[in-house]
Amino acid sequence: MFHIQNFKDWSLNEDRFYQKELNPVFWRDNSFDPGVREKLLNIAQDFYSIFKIELPISDIQLTGSLANYNWTPKSDLDVHVLIDFSQIDSNRELVKKAFDGQRFIWNLRHNIVIRGYDVELYLQDINEPHISSGLFSLKNNEWIKVPSYNPPQIDEKDVDLKYEGIINDINSVEVELSKTDIQIDPREVHEHAERVKSKIMKMRKEGLETRGEFSVENLVFKKLRNEGYIQKLIDLISRSYEKIYSE
Fold first, then answer.
1. Residues facing 123 on adjacent strands
2. Under 8 Å CB-to-CB from 149, ≥6 apart: which residues?
3. Is the distance from CB of 19 to CB of 27 less than 8 angstroms?
């Protein structure tokens, strides 16, 4: 039987999700490291150039846990390049979907690590609301939204229950994929894996939108990512797809 690590223990160990200070690797007295800032601005410009868009960049922002107190050693430098999608097409959702594919390929091909932290690039519509409680403009070198130290109250049992349920779903995909019974249809396994992925992403999205970064749903996602289960699911999706067409 899989034994769930007590959430309180997990949140208080070296990978705890809430810290007493901004990450000292990048921050000192609420000021971002100028050398790292320069690198991130250059990377963001290179990233933006792949889209071949002749629109001005409204801002380049650092968001996520490394602009807040909820960082861990496995956090990413989340850099968002902001432009006005409506200047490209009135259907901003369609524009976003088109750009997401290129963004994914760029991040896949560029494994950039600064001081032990992965760099993740995004192209964002300026009209998209941002729910992060910490937001820093790399372009202007100033805080847009200064995070405050306010450790949240966490429903630990609910986090553990949801986490356990999802890893059981992921492990069930692995079990199905390992079966050699010729009656096992790899398409069904692939669809199962995709449903689990959709479930996780929907859960996280709803948690962020309704209760913010410290919602149970988002903390479950972070624990799944930190414990390697998100990557495991991605690998299972890839393996099941290959099995559909392999002979």
1. 81
2. 20, 69
3. no
Residues pairing with 145 in the sheet: 135
Whether 164 has a pLDDT exceeding 90, the answer reads: yes
Please name each of the domains of the chain with its CATH number: 19-145 (3.30.460), 156-245 (no CATH)
Q: How far is CA 192 from CA 71, 169, 179, 189, 227, in A?
A: 32, 9, 15, 5, 21
Measured between alpha carbons, how far apart are the two ends of the chain, in Å?
A: 35
CA distances from 44 to 30, 81, 141, 236 (A): 22, 7, 14, 31
Q: Which of 46, 36, 59, 33 is nearest to 140 (CA)?
A: 59
User: What per-residue confidence (pLDDT) applies to 137?
Assistant: 97
Predicted pLDDT at 183: 63
The more confident residue out of 215 and 40 is 40
Of all residues in the chain, the percent with pLDDT exceeding 90 is 44
Burial degree of 56 (CB within 10 A; 0-12, 13-18, 19+): exposed
pLDDT, tens digit, 9 for 90 and up, residues 131-151 = 778 999 999 999 999 998 887
Q: What's the pLDDT at 182? A: 58
Contacts of 231 (CB under 8 A, 6+ apart): 225
Q: Are strands 27-28 and 31-32 parallel, antiparallel or unpaired?
A: antiparallel
